[in-house]
Recover the amino acids of this structure.
């Protein structure tokens, strides 16, 4: 198989000012005594990892990258600078309460052109109940500051299925989000992970029925307002898809650096350690998976069907020398007849209802 150039880089900053009750990402309470050596090790890792300096996308996530103090935030930007000169999309995740004017000006100066804000809910009481430390008004202020300083490509994250949030409350959330006119909206259904406060307090995730009904309502409202449903949990204004995340969903390769980060280079999918002590000792890698041909086929199916691009049937034949439609004709035709799949312009696509049962569809296509 031809060696492909790696065009995307994900960088993980695990520090947060506080830990949200639902969060299962690799994260730590922010302390400078840990952040300083972490940035040093991150610089070393990037130097040894990133071979292609002509990257197309960089995504800095967390944790909360903007939780770093100003001097360390500047150090982070300087660390990434050698890899960013040709980047088309450069994203930073942030929380509104830590997005100061000084940090926004630094982001602009260093070429960041896309911001992803963790809103999660627009109801201040709900935010307080899940240990978020911002208000909806803070979100408005942050967005105004970003636009005033020349950063207008903004994603807003929302969580579906938070405790005691009804469908009507969620509808109000969507209305509030739309009032901010973002270019991109992500809406993720709540998952309750072990060892989180939600798990300890025995909070239940939303039922499948509630999640389906809520996603359908959200999709109808956003599509009526000019947004494109281009991935299971993501909507955007035309031409504002996340280029970086499309790398994942197209099953393309990417570098992953930092605590708990995942990457995919040549035939290796890897995950870094989530243990800060090990990371600071330079013991980065925790897991590695060698991707064989069958694995690659399954990743291609599973990831491509998440988007409105679907599976390019000709491209699939070119990569795998296999016609997925002919080899799974009965399964695919059954799902087409039930309204879960469709074929358009020689692409196999999931309908909205199909996206809601993708796990089942992909398992059937793996057989």
């Amino acid at each position: 198989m031809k060696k492909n150039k790696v065009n995307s880089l994900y960088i993980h900053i695990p520090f947060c000012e506080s830990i949200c009750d639902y969060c299962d990402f690799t994260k730590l309470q922010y302390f400078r005594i840990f952040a300083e050596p972490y940035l040093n090790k991150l610089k070393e890792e990037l130097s040894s990892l990133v071979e292609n300096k002509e990257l197309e996308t960089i995504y800095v996530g967390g944790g909360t990258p903007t939780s770093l103090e100003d001097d360390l935030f500047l150090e982070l930007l300087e660390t990434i600078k050698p890899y960013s000169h040709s980047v088309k999309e450069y994203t930073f995740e942030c929380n509104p309460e830590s997005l100061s004017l000084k940090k926004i000006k630094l982001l602009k100066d260093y070429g960041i052109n896309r911001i992803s804000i963790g809103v999660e809910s627009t109801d201040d009481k709900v935010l307080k109940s899940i240990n978020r430390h911002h208000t909806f008004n803070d979100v408005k202020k942050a967005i105004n500051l970003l636009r005033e300083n020349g950063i207008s490509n903004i994603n807003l994250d929302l969580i579906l299925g938070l405790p005691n949030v009804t469908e009507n409350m969620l509808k109000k959330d969507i209305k509030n989000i739309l009032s901010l006119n973002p270019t991109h909206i992500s809406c993720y259904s709540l998952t309750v992970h072990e060892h989180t406060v939600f798990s300890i307090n025995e909070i239940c995730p939303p039922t499948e029925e509630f999640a389906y009904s809520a996603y359908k309502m959200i999709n109808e409202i956003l599509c009526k307002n000019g947004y494109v449903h281009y991935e299971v949990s993501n909507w955007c204004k035309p031409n504002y898809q996340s280029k970086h995340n499309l790398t994942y969903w197209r099953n393309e390769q990417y570098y992953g650096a930092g605590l708990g980060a995942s990457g995919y280079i040549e035939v290796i999918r890897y995950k870094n350690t989530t243990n800060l002590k090990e990371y600071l000792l330079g013991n980065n890698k925790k897991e590695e998976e060698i991707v064989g041909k069958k694995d690659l086929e399954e990743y291609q199916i599973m990831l491509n069907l998440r988007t409105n691009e679907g599976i390019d049937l000709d491209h699939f034949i070119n990569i795998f020398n296999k016609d997925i439609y002919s080899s799974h004709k009965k399964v695919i035709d059954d799902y087409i007849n039930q309204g879960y799949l469709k074929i358009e312009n020689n692409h196999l696509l999931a309908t909205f209802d199909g996206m809601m049962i993708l796990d089942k569809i992909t398992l059937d296509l793996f057989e």
